[in-house]
C-alpha cells in the first residue's frame, strides 16, 4: 500500500504543522510541494481502497435488486390477473388491503411529438405563431456597446440599461503538482 518514503513524508508534515513552519525560500517551497504530492498520493490510495469496497457493495446490491425485480414482476402479474378477473363481474372493482392497493387509471388519448419534424414542418409552412422563441442577451455585443458610469451601465447613445452591474476582477491561487 503506502510505501515507507511516503509514510515518512506524511509524518514530517504533521511535525512541521505543530511547529508553525513558514516558507521563506525556494528550497522550503519545493519541500512543501513534495509534501503536497505525498498527501495527494495518499488521498489517491485511500480513494482506491474505498472504491474497491464500494464496487463490491454495488455489485451485491445490484444482484439483490435484480432478484427482487423478478419477484416483484411475478406478484404484480398475479395481482393484475386477479384484478381483471374480478372486473369482469364488477367494473369498479379495486384491490384494497391493509398492505396496499391495486387500481387502474385511464390515460386520455393525446399526441406524440417528434420535435425536429414538427418544427421543420411548421417553419416550412410559415406557421410561426405555434413556435416558441427564447430571447437571450447578446452579452458580448452589449458589453462592447457601453460602459459603467457611476454604477450604471450606459450605452454609447446615453441610454441607461437596468440590470447590468460591474463584476470586480478577482484572483485565485492554483496549485499544480
Summarize the structure.
This protein is mainly alpha-helical.
Molecular structure report:
This protein is mainly alpha-helical and 177 residues long. The protein has two domains: 4-102, no CATH class; 115-161, no CATH class. It has helices at 4-19, 26-87, 115-124, 139-144; strands at residues 95-97, 100-102, 146-149, 152-155, 160-161. A three-stranded antiparallel sheet has the order 3-4-5. Strands 1-2 form a two-stranded antiparallel sheet. Helix 1 packs across helix 2.
List keywords for this structure.
single chain, 177 residues, mainly alpha, 2 domains, three-stranded antiparallel sheet, two-stranded antiparallel sheet, 53% helix, flat
Query: How many beta-strand elements?
Result: 5
How many helices? The count is: 4
What does the radius of gyration come to?
33 Å
What is the strand content?
5-15%
Q: Detail the poorly predicted runs.
A: none
Could you give a short account of the major beta sheet?
3 strands, antiparallel
Question: Structural class of the helix and strand makeup?
Answer: mainly alpha
The helix/strand series, from N terminus to C terminus, equals: HHEEHHEEE
Order of strands across the widest beta sheet? 3-4-5
Q: How much helical structure, as a percent, in the residues?
A: 40-55%
What's the mean pLDDT score? 87
Note the overall shape. flat
How far apart, in Å, are the first and last alpha carbons?
21 Å
Q: List the domain count as a whole number.
A: 2
Amino acid at each position: 500500500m503506502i510505501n515507507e518514503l511516503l509514510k515518512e513524508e506524511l509524518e514530517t508534515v504533521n511535525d512541521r504543522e505543530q511547529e508553525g513552519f513558514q516558507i521563506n525560500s525556494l528550497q522550503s517551497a519545493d519541500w512543501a510541494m513534495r509534501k503536497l504530492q505525498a498527501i495527494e498520493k495518499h488521498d489517491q490510495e485511500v480513494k482506491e481502497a474505498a472504491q474497491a469496497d464500494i464496487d463490491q457493495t454495488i455489485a451485491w446490491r445490484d444482484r439483490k435488486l435484480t432478484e427482487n425485480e423478478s419477484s416483484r414482476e411475478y406478484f404484480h402479474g398475479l395481482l393484475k390477473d386477479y384484478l381483471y378477473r374480478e372486473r369482469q363481474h364488477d367494473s369498479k372493482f379495486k384491490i384494497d388491503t391493509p398492505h396496499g392497493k391495486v387500481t387502474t387509471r385511464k390515460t386520455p388519448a393525446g399526441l406524440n411529438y417528434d420535435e425536429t419534424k414538427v418544427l421543420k414542418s411548421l417553419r416550412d409552412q410559415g406557421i410561426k405563431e405555434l413556435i416558441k422563441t427564447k430571447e437571450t442577451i447578446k452579452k458580448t455585443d452589449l458589453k462592447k456597446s457601453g460602459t459603467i458610469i457611476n454604477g450604471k451601465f450606459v450605452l454609447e447613445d446615453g441610454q441607461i440599461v437596468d440590470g447590468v452591474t460591474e463584476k470586480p476582477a478577482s484572483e485565485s491561487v492554483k496549485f499544480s503538482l
